[in-house]
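Lecture 7 notes: from sequence to structure.
We start with the chain below.
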Amino acid sequence: MLKIRLKRTGKRNAPSYRIVVADSRSPRNGKTKEEIGWFNPTEDPNKVVYDEERLKHWIKNGAQMTPAVEKLVEGTYEYEPYTRQNEKEERSTEEEKSETEEPEAQKERKAQAVEQEREPREKEEEDKGETRES
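Predicted structure tokens for the same chain:
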């Protein structure tokens, strides 16, 4: 099966992508049938260049677009560059949420978890007791 997908090129921390037609079993940067466009998110994330005629040709011949390529072609893709700062901010907000949670709520959650662990054990013990009696 043929896929229309992205092939990564460029340097470390500065990716650029080629929109290519390739067999679905080939590796991401492996052999391709045809290169039909490109996308460079580090220079201009809103600019996607591709040959519309060739895209239609390959779709007509049975190639399927990956979700990432579909978003690029439709223009709904939103590029958000990865930075370690974003990751740190996400962690800090999660920690703040757990710290601001009331101790009573934390105790309730722990109690519920313990109860959920006990229920299967109690059922097993009851089942064992019934089998012993008969």
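Points to note: The beta strands are 2-11, 14-23, 34-39, 48-50, 64-65. Helices lie at 52-60, 67-74, 84-100, 103-133.
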